[in-house]
Amino acid sequence: MMTTTEKDGDRSRRLVVSRAEHSISRKQIDENTLKVLYRLRRNGYLAYLVGGGVRDLLLGRIPKDFDVATDATPEQVKALFRNCYLVGRRFRLAHIRFAGNHVVEVATFRRQPRLEELPRDSDEHFFFTENVFGSPREDAFRRDFTINGLFYNIDDFSIIDYVGGMQDLHDRRLRVIGDPLVRFTEDPVRMLRALEFSARLGFRLDDSIREAIYLRAPLIAEAAAARIREELMELFRHRVAAPVLRDAQSLGLLPHLLGGFEGEAETFDLLEQVDGCCSNSITVGEPLILAALFLARFRRGLQTQAVETVGEALRLANQLLMPHCGYFRISSAVRHQARELLTGFFRLSRGRGRRGEKRFLDHPFAVSALELFRLWSEASGLERELVASWKEVFTSRGAVPDKPPRPPRRRRRRPRGRKPPSGKS
């Protein structure tokens, strides 16, 4: 490896890893991303592959997508690509669309503004800081973790490292770029992402990150609920929800993340089973995840409130789900399905031969409720014979995995006083 001085006048040192000394090949980068990189370079602009795509290629993993960074402004990028659309209000991004709904995102290098550059109106500060263009080095130091701050230069196929990310990849260590206390205050969601990357990649968390999460944990409650919800769903997509939420509990993050969520051992064991379903390509939707998160409290409520009827179980499920769904703006349809899964669990757990059993077997969410019951049984080691008995009943009826029922189509009402068309004109 060699160290050089940056060409754009920045005198700070950088690490440049030549093509012969790293494992990334252009064959691993999709054709559309290569088209974007090469066209930018042919027109005199810097063109770098950035972020998680570079990290995953260096780790021998398959990237989810590729992002491009350049010194061309969004308007200059748009002038080069007819299939380019500018998006974003705080920071303009160029989305270059190809056939098959494939989008290559191109961002202009950014930097932190100097104090004298900030507008006088403090309400405009955040908008302004997202729209200050900078150099590659300045852009690298704005990123979250060192392993996400690496650039792949299409000009000479080298890796450019300003932040020590190559060494951290080698050491399998996760570090924040800059002071973790400051960076987590800027964006509290980075705390959750740190735990996610550690679990997904098998990296050791730097001690400074653990200490900063413990000190800044309450700030996660101030993050946008919709963003937290998406990050939580991402944990299940990557099959790391159980270990991440366990770590969140040990670092004091979980109660602030999920609004007083206690994090019972029973819940973590169940989430491990849900993660396993994801790895086995079984469809796991948000209603099942929501039901799994609340099942331990639901079971405890059944006992403490001496619930005996399905109506009482429905009310308990609603009572538990409503605050959570309201805070995270989860749709009433998803909440309804999660409620039906919890209530179905109640009916299944009471055993066979109950009144209304036949009617329940025809319920659109009966099979999904059985799946929740099975996952809980695997996690707890309880009621396995009952699960097997229910499976025989469902199999004998030819039950198949169900889909959420589609809402009825609304008939468009004709305005009063207007006659229907009599025929073709």
Record the strand order, biggest sheet. 1-2-9-8-3-4-7-6-5
Q: In CATH, what is the class of the largest domain? A: Alpha Beta
CATH architecture of the largest domain: 2-Layer Sandwich
The rounded Rg comes to: 26 Å
Q: What are the low-pLDDT stretches, counting only 5+ consecutive residues below 50? A: 7-11, 124-128, 400-408, 418-425
Mean pLDDT: 86
User: Count of DSSP helices?
Assistant: 19
Largest sheet: 9 strands, mixed
Query: How much strand content do the residues show?
Result: 5-15%
Order of helices and strands: EEHEHEHEEEHHEEHEHHEHHHHHHHHHHH
The count of domains is 3
Query: CATH topology of the largest domain, anyone?
Result: Beta Polymerase, domain 2
Number of beta strands:
11
Helix content: 40-55%
SS-derived structural category: alpha+beta
CATH superfamily annotation of the largest domain: Beta Polymerase, domain 2
* Approximate shape: elongated
For the termini, the CA-CA separation is: 76 Å
What would a concise description of this structure say?
The chain has 19 helices and eleven strands. With 425 residues, the protein is of the alpha+beta class.
How would you describe what is shown here?
The chain has 425 residues and is α+β, with helices and mostly antiparallel strands. The protein folds into three domains: 1-170, Beta Polymerase, domain 2 (2-Layer Sandwich), CATH 3.30.460; 172-263, cca-adding enzyme, domain 2 (Orthogonal Bundle), CATH 1.10.3090; 270-396, cca-adding enzyme, domain 2. It contains 19 helices and eleven strands. The protein has helices at residues 31-42, 52-58, 74-80, 125-129, 136-140, 165-171, 180-186, 189-201, 207-216, 225-237, 241-250, 254-257, 265-279, 286-304, 310-327, 332-349, 357-361, 366-380, 384-396, and strands spanning 2-5, 13-17, 47-50, 67-70, 84-87, 93-98, 102-108, 150-153, 158-161, 173-174, 204-205. Strands 1-2-9-8-3-4-7-6-5 form a nine-stranded mixed sheet. A two-stranded parallel sheet has the order 10-11. A hairpin with a 7-residue loop joins strand 1 (2-5) and strand 2 (13-17). Helix 14 (286-304) packs across helix 15 (310-327) and helix 16 (332-349) packs across helix 18. It is elongated. It starts with a strand and ends in a 29-residue tail after the last helix.
